[in-house]
Amino acid sequence: MAPAHCLLACLLSVALACGNAHAQALAEAATGRPFAAQIAAFVAEDRATPPAPCQVLFVGSSSIVKWRDTLVADMAPMPVVNRGFGGSQIADVNAWFDTVVAPYQPSAIVFYAGENDIDAGKSAEQVVADFDAFMARKTATLGRTPVYFISLKPSKLRFAQFARQTAVNDAVRAELRTRADLHYIDVVPAMLDSGKPKDIFGLDGLHMNAAGYAIWTRIVRAALLPHFRADERLCHRHGDSSRGA
């Protein structure tokens, strides 16, 4: 069987077994949409071990993916779900929203994407518009669930794009004035030394090493922990209401 047909059969079999919102999304994935294999792996994982609702959902591109091995320990006692998929842009997160965001009924969403968008040539304005579309989907589906936007990071490989990354960061931060459900996590200052990226990256100059994730852990925990219990209580109340409790 050709590889494409194998993927099609796999996706459809998982979709039929799931019998929920994931099934519809995976049936659509069988048309060959980007990232279908990674999404199928998430669905299979959820089927084997259904995640509890009201966890903190981490979603976005490879900086989230590569946090997978230590994220649970790094964020303890906050329960977390990692649904990053490598190479993704914000539009891809939006396209797979019904599979990688909505089903988890998260207490909060930690969002990191946009860096690949800039590298692909998108303007800062388009990146922000795509993030605004994500927020609109989030509000329509998950109401007041808070979103914590991690600023686009300064890396050695892409430091020539730093000005455009900063334009995205500044625009998202400006939205805090009008959105109570949006938080901005600024990792940029801690990743720079005398205005240049610190030596906290792997050989590719793009993906962080353990020292880079230690910086992120400290800053992200500090942003989430003061709100964690309140976010969790609100999530559980919303879930009870939706079940008619």
Please give a structural write-up.
This protein is α/β, with parallel strands linked by helices and 245 residues long. It has two domains: 1-50, no CATH class; 52-242, SGNH hydrolase (Rossmann fold, 3-Layer(aba) Sandwich), CATH 3.40.50. Helix content is 53%, strand content 11%. The protein contains twelve helices and seven strands. It has helices at residues 3-18, 21-29, 36-48, 62-65, 71-75, 90-95, 97-100, 115-119, 124-142, 162-174, 188-191, 210-242; strands at 56-60, 80-84, 108-112, 147-150, 182-185, 192-193, 196-197. The protein has a five-stranded parallel beta sheet with strand order 2-1-3-4-5. A hairpin with a 2-residue loop joins β6 (192-193) and β7. α1 (3-18) packs parallel to α3. The radius of gyration is 18 Å and the shape is globular. The protein starts with a helix and ends with a helix. The model is unreliable at 1-19 (pLDDT under 50).
Structural domain tally: 2
Major pleated sheet: 5 strands, parallel
List the strand order in the largest sheet: 2-1-3-4-5
Mean pLDDT score:
89
Q: Structural class of the helices, strands and pairings?
A: alpha/beta
Strand content: 5-15%
**Percentage of residues assigned to helices:** 40-55%
CATH superfamily of the largest domain: SGNH hydrolase
Assign the CATH topology of the largest domain: Rossmann fold
- Which architecture name of the largest domain does CATH use? 3-Layer(aba) Sandwich
CATH class of the largest domain: Alpha Beta
Number of strands: 7
